[in-house]
Structures are given as C-alpha cells and as structure tokens.
User: What shape does this take?
Amino acid sequence: MPYHSALSSLCSQGLAVMVVKDVETLRDESSSSNDGYVALFIRMLGVDNDPQDREQAVVALWKHALGGKHCIDNIMKYRGTVNLIVNLLKSESDSACEAAAGLLRVISSINLYRNSVAESGAIEEMTSLLTRSSLSSDVKEQSICTLWNLSVDEKLCVRITSSDILPLLVKFLEDEDIKVKEAAGGVLSNLTLSQSNHKLMVEAGVIPKLANLLKANEEDSKIIRKVARNALLELAKDEYNRILVMEEGLVLVPLVGAAAYKSFTPALYSWPSLPDGTKIEQSSKGPSRYGASELLLGLNVDEEKAELEEAKMNAVVGRTQQQFLARMGAIEIEDDTKSKVEWSSNQRMTLLPWMDAVARLVLILGLEDESAIARAAGSIADASINEHMRTSFKEAGAIKHLVQLINHPSDVVRLGVIRALDRLSISNNVCRTIEAENILHPLTNLLKQSKSEISHSLTAMILNILIRILDPNKEMKSKFYDGTVNGSNKGWDVVRHPASANGNDMIASELASRNNYLDRRQNIAGGDLVDSTFLSCLVDILKTSIPDLQRKAASILESIVAIEACVEQLISADIESGLVAVFRQKSLIEVEYSDKPDLQILELEEAGLAVSAASRLLTKLLDYEQFRLTVNWHQFTRLLRAVLVSSIPLQNKEWVAACLVKLSTLSGQNSDFENPINMEVTLYETIPRLIEQIKSSFSPEVQEAAILELNRIVSEGMIDSTRAVASEGGIFPLVKMMENGSDRAVEASLAILYNLSMDSENHAAIIAAGAIPVLRKLVLSQRSQWMRALRLLRTLPT
Assistant: This one.
C-alpha cells in the first residue's frame, strides 16, 4: 500500500496536513509544497486504494478546505476530485461520510463550484446516505448543509424536490439534534422560494412540522424559528396554503413599522374593562388605609364575580402583552429582524401565534396610519376562517373598531373594513354583536351614497352583511348550530333537539322567537330599512345584469317586505321592473351551444339562484293587496313559465313553481291538470323533483312517498307525463325500486313502467335498465305483484 506508507511517513515527520494536531502547518507552506501535498491526498481518494487511506485523505482535505477560498481553489483545480469525494459517501464509515459531506459542503459554498457538486451526483448519493437507519448526527448535519448550499440555485431546487429527499427533510424537522433541524429547515426554506415546489411540499406534510417549530419558545432555536417563519410565509402566499397555516394556530400579521405605533395611546388610570368593552364590576370595598386601592384599581375587583371564560381570558392576556410591547417600543423588533419575506407592493408580513396575532391586529385598528389599518383589516378577514377565530376577534374588541371605521374617508380602509365584517358576520354570535353596534345606519348610508361609484365586490359584501343581520331565522340557527366553516351554513356541531312529547311546544317556541324578531324589526320601520332611497337602491341592483347581486338584493327585500310600510315605497320604486329584469336574464332567454360548457353551467347556476330569490320575493309581495292591484299578472306568468322550462338547476325551480301556482290561483284559473300552468309545473318541476328523490334519497320512506306520488300523476293521464319521466332518466331508478323497494313501491314502479312501455320508444331503455331479470324473478316468486310483472313482461320484446 504505497499511499498508506507515504501518509505514515508524513505523519512520522510531523508534516501530515490536517491529520496531525498542527493543522496550520500546510497552510503556511509555500505554494509549490502545498500543491504537492494536496495532489497526494487527492490521489489517495482513488477507489482502488485502501479505505483507511481514503478516509484519512478526505479528512485532511476537508480540514485544509476550511482555510478559505484559495484552499478550495487549490483542491478544485484537479479534475475529477468532486467525483472521488462523492464516491466516499458510499463508505460504511461514519467518519469518512462526515468528512466527505463536510468537504462537499465547503466546496458548494462557492458559487463557482456549486454546479460541479450537483453534476457529480451528490444529491442522489446524499439521498441514499440519509436513508440509512443508523446515521450519526454529524453526518446528517454535514449532508443536509451541503443540500442547503445547493438549494440556493433555483435549478438545483427542482432536482432536490423531484428526488426522494423531500420526505426525509420533513422527517428531520423532528430530529433530536438542533443543528440537523436547522439545516433541514434551511433547505425547505430555500425550496419554498420556487412556487412550483409548494404543492409537493404541502403534500409531504411540511406545514404542521414548520408550524410546531415556529411556535416552540426555546432560546436555542432562533435559527430554526427564522427559517420556519420564512418558509411558512412563502407557502402562505397561496390562499389554500394560507388556510392550512392558520389551521395550525398561526396568523399572518402585517409589519407596519415602529413609527406607526407612536400614535398608540393606552387608557391609563381608568377602570379595568375587557377588550370587547365590557366593564368589570367594581366591588363595594372601602378605600384602603394608605390609598393603594385608588392607585391599583385591580384591588377593587371582586375576584368571585370576575371569573372569565377562556376566550375572554385569552383576549385579556393577548391585549396586555401587545400593549406592553407597544408602550416599550419593542413591538416589531423581533419580528422585523426575522421576517424578510415581502409580499405585493413591498408589504412585509410576519406570523404570530393566534392569541398574539388577534391582539396585535386589533391594536393596529386603533392607530392613525391608514395603510396599517387597511392591512390589519385585510388580515382579520383572511384569518376569520372558523368559528374560533371569529369569536376571538369579537372578544378582542375588533367589532367596535371596525364598525367605527366604516365611515373612514379612505376608500382602501373602507374596503378592508367591510371585507373583515363580511367574514366575521358569518358567525351567528358575532353577527348579533355586529348588529348591536348599530351597523345598519352606516351600511345603508354607504350603499346609498356610493351606489353609482361603489365596486361590485364592495356592494356584494355590504349585501352579505345585511342579509345575515336581517335573516329572521338567525336566532333559530344559533340554537341548532355551534358554528360555521369558511362561509358555509353547515355547522361544525349540529345540536339536534331530542324527540319528546313536548315537540309541539318546541316548534311553538321557535315560531314565537321568529315573530319576536319580526316585531323588533317593525320597531325600526321608521329608520334605515324603510328609507325610500335605500329601497330604490336595492331595486336598482335588481335591474343590474349581475345574478349574484340580484340574488342578494332580492333576499334583503324578502326580509324587509315583512314590514308592511315598505310595500308602498317598493311599488313607487318600480319593484315590478326590477323583478322583470331578474326573470329576463340573458342566460335564461338565450340558449346557446357554448364551447365552454363549464362556464355556461356556472352562469345557469347563478341565474337559478337569482330567479329563486326573486320568486320568493314575488310570492311574498302577492300577499299584499296594494301590490296585487298594480302587478301585471300576464307578464309575470309568461316570464315564470319560460323560466320553468329553462335549464336552471332543479332545486331553483321549486319557488318558481310555487309562485306560478300562486299567480294562477289569485288570477282565478282552474287548479286541475287542464290548467296549462299546473301542467307545466308538474312536467318541469314536480316530476323531475320526484325522480331526483327516488334516485338520491337515503330514506326508503321518502323514496316510497315519491314513487307513489309519481304513480298518481302518471295514472291520471296527464299529457306528456310518461315522456317527462323517461326524459328525466326515471326508468333506471324505477327498475331499481322494483327490485329493492317495499311492496307498495314495487307495485307503483310496475304501474309506471307499464304506462311507459305503451310507447315502444321506451322499450330499449327499460330492457337496458335490467328489467327483464327482475320481472322474471317477481313472476317466479309468486309475490302479490307477479300478475303486474307478467303483464309488463309480455309488452316488452323478449
């Protein structure tokens, strides 16, 4: 072993570089002598040499490379050096792997040599190395730090992400060694800089792991918290990822600058109150002997009466911490040094635990900086993703600030504030608090004063808030739902009242609650809701060509018409022309074959919702005689009949059909099937609805009731009823019910299918639905329906 002998000789002379204690000896030698030693050790890296020689050589070169760029240049001038170093990553010796990875880490820190390291297969070899079950922390650290250097290059990021290293990096975020976690977090932070990597990283589960690291309050984890924050901020630029981050208890907060907080003026020497403005009850204790109770007001609080629920306690703690930081001038010092991620318009953000973030955002709402207020309001809107967050903002006192800011002269501030209130009002509990702040007046004024200039998005948000405030079922919903999720009307926990003998009392209680709400609304009839300008504004919105705004305006008017005083003003505002505009939408009267079917379906759904809301409004208006005396019966009947046969979704035709029937009844037309209105309602709404119930209902009782009603309609011989059943796809569910339904359902199915079989065009569909085997089974079983089954079987071409 010549190289081993040479190394031993060098060691005996005290000249071996990096192997003996005097590491600096070689670095101080002349350039020519230095080159000779480096060349010798590079030759010793060859794969045909003894593993011990190779290990000692790579250790020597690693320590030599730590001398600076000129030492690294000295190593890299020999071609093939990096390949030999990468090959050592396959060694079974942890010492050799650590030295090889450490040397690659030093080399990759130089921009010039980064591609050389990547092209030598270092990423793939390190991936293989890191998958070993038993690996020292030092090897992990050096390997991952090399990847950290390589991930600076965007092109190399793609290679790292596409390899198997990503799940390993996520796993190393939970490693016991803090340096390994820091290195893994650094690589992931660099990978997030490329948006194309976000989907893979989220699927690998990186968000929960990074969030846990950021929330950890360990003094020795400042670096990992910094890289975790930057990585999460990059991921949170995507709306979906932002929700995932907030679900981990972290909220985006704008960095507004320390100067903005100079306008903060805490309420000193005032009686203590909760963040939402609730005053804490003062005890009846007398003054203390030395006047301490006059200075320390908290001594006057009755501890037994001051017990707070958890949400209020969190609000108090968060407010105290953030106000203390603001008064000390240290509120953004830590965040400003850690957050280097910039969003649109150079607006920097940071991430805080939800309790601190809620208090910080509410504090910013009370500042004078318009930009800071607008950004805080936007963050509140983004953070209001669930009932917990919406309630937290309510308890922190955000509602009062936001309502006061509706009249702010800045358009940007108003837009952010309305957006925040829109998101917060999704919660029934928060919505009641918003209503208690007398928000109706500023909202209606904003809608009236700016109706010609206001944007569609702002109009839609104002209408959303008004709909929720004026919803007569709001109090009943609060008894059945604990919360809502992301704007949905479906609660997290549905509270169902148990069935009992007092069920009628419960229903009566709910109706009484609804009537009380309407009575309270009647008390404000002389105010904002019955203002003629406001009502005219809503009617004008009905005349627009935007179905979403039309639906919302119609829903608000539906609630307001419960106040009889409004009807006359609506007639004066030409409510009839507004309703006509809704029923004459372009997507309803123009049937086109579009090359974008998905867009056409979306337009029909939006139009259907608007038409349904307008139909409900028209139905309620018809209860008032003064409206019936002015309405054009024939025009509305013609328009609604056209809507009924249109392609809007079936569920939106229910109120159209009900309104048509009411128009028909009030106009004195017959109520039997010969009435063309009743016939169209049956063909285009009743029959499709019954078939849909048979297809999709999970309740056998509902399916049976639907099939019996369908049999009644068909057996009465209405024209085109059998054709409507066939065209709506009713044959297949009827055959299925014939096989699995109850005796009554089987008999009704047989009767309907027999009527359908009278038209030979339906034979192929009946046979394709599998009716023949089912009919034969019924005949052979000698069940009570076997004669009907035999008769149907004989009509089919078998």
Remarks:
- The radius of gyration is 38 Å.
- The chain has a mean pLDDT of 80.
- The first strand starts at residue 250 and ends at 254.
